[in-house]
Amino acid sequence: MNAVDSEVSQAPEPRLTAIGERPRKITSDALEITHPLAEGRYQSPLRYPGAKSALAPIIGELIHAATVSSEVQRVDLFVEPFAGGASTTLRLVGAGIVERALLADADPLVAAFWRVAASRTAELIDRVSDEHARYISAGGVTALDRWDYWRAWDSKPGSSRAENDLELATKCMFLNRTTFSGILHGQAGPIGGRAQTSAYGIGCRFTLDPLVERLEYIGHLYDTGRIVDVWCSDWRETLGGVATHYKTLLPNRVVAYLDPPYLSKSGKLYRRSFDRTNKHAADLDWMSMFQHENLAEYLRHKMQFRWILSYDFDDRLLQDDALYASKCMRPDDDARALLDVKAWRIVRRSVILNYTASSKTGRGPAQELLLTTLPAGTVPSNDRLRVVD
Ligand SMILES: C[S@@+](CC[C@H](N)C(=O)[O-])C[C@H]1O[C@@H](n2cnc3c(N)ncnc32)[C@H](O)[C@@H]1O
Predict the structure, then answer these.
(1) CB of 269 within 8 A of CB of 110?
(2) Among 119, 163, 268, 361, whose Cα sits 20 to 30 Å from the Cα of 96?
(3) 8 band by pLDDT with thresholds 50, 70 and 90
(4) Going from the N-terminus, what domains does the chain have, and what CATH number goes with each?
(5) Rounded to whole angstroms, how far apart are CA atoms 63 and 26?
(6) What pLDDT is recorded for position 335?
């Protein structure tokens, strides 16, 4: 038994929390999207560190090129296991490039936000409007006190899941809009600092009307069956859960887009990260130390549907055998029984992006690596998508 096998055998029982009691089934055709934001530039209510809004059109280009091939005719389910601000999902669903999407994130704050925004939109809009009227509009010490309140707030034992989720979603929205770079993590401070002497104070990113419009868009996507469900789950539970709950779509009508935390320093940006120096990572389990390797192992041998992976460009990703040195996905026996292929090629492309917050470079351009098992012959290479050997 190798190191990875022994870790897997000691993995905790999967814990997957969906919007309802059970993962939502796809029962009928999705309805038409009529919300004007479907074509808008800014669709996510969250400002997310490392958000991939600039990458979304490129992911769309990859999927569009694949769906005109005979192998992948249509993407019925697009899965984002590291959803964060979900900018890619919102763009691709809105543009009609994929039919439906499933969002998942291991951070309970982020997952609760998407669950409530999707399925209890009006309640969240009321809560967020109230926070804005009472605290953000007042500004100064009142807004700062509220920021401290939400930073210290924790779920109350004995409160129902419904109550708890609504408060978590409100906390996520408040802190995301009022904290430096939208970082929900304990080290980042309020926009404008404690002194609030800058022209950009704590409320400068908390503009109510656009936020309400974006929340309404999320509710519309859920009501039309375009956002199928939101799971609070670790990536492994999400990928396994999709294979279990949406079996009839496998292998060619599901595509996963994975945007895991950065290889280095992600502990500064996310409450849930793969970073071994992040104290929150200890909440997951000791396996989190090897999550980049575990994810690579899973994608190279266990995936039962096609995937696209994005990472901040790092040579180690392409050189390390435990990561993505191999250009081939070789399904293990279980996956092969379903996929009916011996191997899928892993195609590599690099893209230059402008990040909102990059761990390496701050604001400004950064190089992103894209890896995919979409049919190799369909993956474009052009000025934006450069071939990587
Ligand atoms: C790079 S961000 C995703 C950003 C997203 N693509 C966007 O455009 O906003 C990574 C996300 O992964 C989540 N995450 C960290 N560890 C995870 C795990 N083990 N399983 C699932 N999600 C995890 C973090 O909470 C964070 O939201």
Answers:
(1) no
(2) 119
(3) very low
(4) 3-117+212-387 (3.40.50.150), 118-209 (no CATH)
(5) 21
(6) 83
Query: Quick one: 119 exposed, middle or buried, by C-beta within 10 A (0-12, 13-18, 19+)?
Result: buried
**Average pLDDT of the residues of the chain:** 87
Average pLDDT over residues 205-227: 97
The pLDDT score that the predictor gives to residue 285 is 39
Check pocket membership of 107 for ligand 1, CB cut-off 6 A: yes
Nearest to 170 by CA among 210, 229, 123: 123
In a 13 Å sphere around the CA of 264, the CA atoms on its Cβ side amount to 8
Task: Give me 23's structure tokens.
Answer: 């993962």
* DSSP character string of 128-140: HHHHIIIIITT-H
pLDDT recorded at residue 154: 92
Quickly tell me which residue has 């007042």 as its tokens: 138
Closest C-alpha among 41, 43, 48 to residue 355: 48
**What does the alpha-carbon distance between residue 97 and residue 89 come to, in Å, rounded to a whole number?**
10
Question: Which residue of 16, 92, 105 sits with most ligand 1 atoms within 8 Å of its CB, as the best mutation to test the pocket?
Answer: 105
Q: What is the tens place of the pLDDT at every residue in 20-47?
A: 989 999 977 899 999 999 999 899 999 9
Q: What is the CA radius of gyration of the chain?
A: 20
CA dihedral 372, 103, 91, 251 (to 10 degrees): 40
pLDDT tops 70 at residue 56? yes
CA of 291, closest atom in ligand 1: 19
Q: How many CB atoms are closer than 10 A to CB 47?
A: 17
Nearest CA to ligand 1 atom 19: 234
How sure is the predictor about 7, in pLDDT bands with cuts at 50, 70 and 90? very low
Model confidence at 355, pLDDT cuts 50, 70, 90, reads low
Q: pLDDT band for position 274 (50/70/90)?
A: low
CA–centroid distance, 375 to ligand 1, in Å, is: 26
Distance from residue 246's CA to the centre of ligand 1 (Å): 22
Query: 21: which 2 tokens?
Result: 């009691």
